[in-house]
Amino acid sequence: MDRISLAQALQDFEVANARVMDLTSRLTTTHRDLVATRSELEKLKLRNGVLRKHNRRLQREVKQLNDSRAVRSAQAATRAVQKARKKLGK
Question: What residue spans carry the region label Disordered (predicted)?
Fold first, then answer.
């Protein structure tokens, strides 16, 4: 190889090496972001599970309350009052 070809090969190597270094840095950053995103996703999945369980419990409690005699009596009383008001024209 002559000196010009050797100098060009060295320059090409330096450019390629810089590209590899840049891509490696970008890949490392992307991987770090991916790991953080996956971790956040897992936390959110756990939180979602807890909230769903809590929601189901609250729905059962609301159903029990709505099915209770006290609520049914209050609803019947409200209907009776509304009916009476309607008859009185108020």
Answer: 65-90
Taking the alpha carbons of 35, 36, 41, 43 in that order, is the dihedral positive or negative? positive
Contact 65, 71 (CB under 8 A): yes
Q: Copy the structure tokens of residue 68.
A: 């209770």
Q: Give the DSSP letter string of 10-53.
A: HHHHHHHHHHHHHHHHHHHHHHHHHHHHHHHHHHHHHHHHHHHH
Determine the structural domain holding residue 45 and report its residue range.
3-88
Domain tally, the chain: 1
- Residue 65, C-beta contacts closer than 8 angstroms, at least 6 positions apart: 71
Q: What is the pLDDT of residues 19-56, one digit of tens each?
A: 999 999 999 999 999 999 999 999 999 999 999 999 99
